[in-house]
Design goal:
Number of strands: 11
Shape: globular
Number of helices: 0
Largest sheet: 7 strands, mixed
Structural class: mainly beta
Order of helices and strands: EEEEEEEEEEE
Helix content: under 10%
Radius of gyration: 13 Å
Distance between the termini: 37 Å
Length: about 110
């Protein structure tokens, strides 16, 4: 099983980034996929998830700014991040979950700084 995130980087406040996570080794289309993040010195925070039917959920801190989507044909989940803020700075992790099985990627760093 592999989850490989990409798309992180350094941006200024107000800018956008799109994260991607390519999955392999499990039946992607049947899993709920999610993004979590860990800011420097803080614990892991759930950001957004999308279930196998396409229903989306968001943390209040990112609602209206972030959008999660999935492409089952490409085994890929995306996180479009708009109007980025300093407090969005974190390592972003991709997660796949089904019936107690939990897979995580190694993360991609997003830094929002002026």
């Amino acid at each position: 099983v592999q989850l490989v995130e990409s798309g992180g980087g350094l941006v200024q406040p107000g800018e956008s980034l799109r994260l991607s996570c390519v999955a392999s080794g499990f039946t992607f289309s049947t899993y709920t996929m999610a993004w979590g993040r860990q800011a420097p010195g803080k614990g892991l925070e759930w950001v957004s998830s999308i279930d196998k039917s396409g229903s989306e959920r968001y943390a209040e801190s990112v609602k209206g700014r972030f959008a999660i989507s999935r492409d089952n044909a490409k085994n890929t989940v995306y996180l479009q991040m708009n109007i980025l803020k300093h407090e969005d700075t974190a390592v972003y992790y991709c997660n796949g979950k089904q019936y107690g099985v939990d897979y995580w990627g190694e993360g991609t760093l997003v830094t929002v700084s002026s």
